[in-house]
Amino acid sequence: MPSRLLVFVFVSSVVAATPAAAQGPSKDPLGAARDLYASARYDEALAVLDDLHPAPDTPATERRSIEQYRSLCLLALGRGQEAESAIAQVITADPSYVPSEADASPRVRAAFSDVRKRLLPDIASARYADAKAIFDRKDYPAAKDAFRGVMALLDDSDMGGRLPDLKVLAKGFLDLSAAAATPPPAPEPKHELPPMPPPTPRPDVNKIYGADDPDVTAPAVVRQELPRIPSMVTSQARSRGVLEIVIDEKGRVTSAAIRESVHPIYDNLVLTAARDWKYQPGTLDGQPVKYRKLIQINVTKQN
């Protein structure tokens, strides 16, 4: 479709959707920009938006509206590269934002989708790093919320299934955060009749349970000794890693995988050692179940 026809179709849809904006004077600069935009006075609307300098306490929704209208004006003026930059600012501030059919034409929504597809992997990686930093500070409730946000980005349709390894890590740390953030049970009230017991859960023999299954008792360690790190790789090793294991109903380790590497040589030593580890199996209502466990590896380097 020629660019002039695209702009005409886009402008017609937005003006038809916002007749009230052009009927009276605006009470604020953003409202004035909306009125000018609805009247197809894009240069004037853009000038008003460029003069807006939101205060630090300006609500995020208002900031987003400013950038939205800036991108719409730029698209209407045929300034696609600048419009794409404005769209990128909106998505960076709120990666979950997708304009509705009432807000924009199909072509504009497609432009937003294209920019989201390009930016979401980098945004998700940055949000994961922020969430991991919160986890390392041991602020587990905040880390749980942050990793949930990362999972929402990774599950977004515009992500297209990219970053599968990051999704495994984010899910693992979400489980760890949820487990660490769970408050201790409240003491039972005195001199009161106990509540009726809930229905007895029945274990699923094919399911591998984990920290996000509240009715499951996690396995207890019988033997779990990490090998010493070889001196020849100490200087090259990371100080921390993550190991994922699956423990069966007899307390044996049936699978092990490195989720965050310390050093390839040391990783292999850990995987070999894990085969001989032993646990009291996890249980659901007293019955043994398979259990997925994440183990954080902390390496003390000798000077």
What does this protein look like?
- The structure is a single chain.
- The protein is α+β, with helices and mostly antiparallel strands.
- The protein is built from nine helices and eight strands.
- A hairpin with a 5-residue loop joins strand 4 and strand 5.
- The longest helix has 31 residues.
- It is elongated, with a radius of gyration of 27 Å.
- It starts with a helix and ends in a 5-residue tail after the last strand.
Offer a quick outline of the entry.
With 303 residues, the chain is α+β, with helices and mostly antiparallel strands. Helices cover 47% and strands 14% of the residues. The N and C termini lie far apart (67 Å).
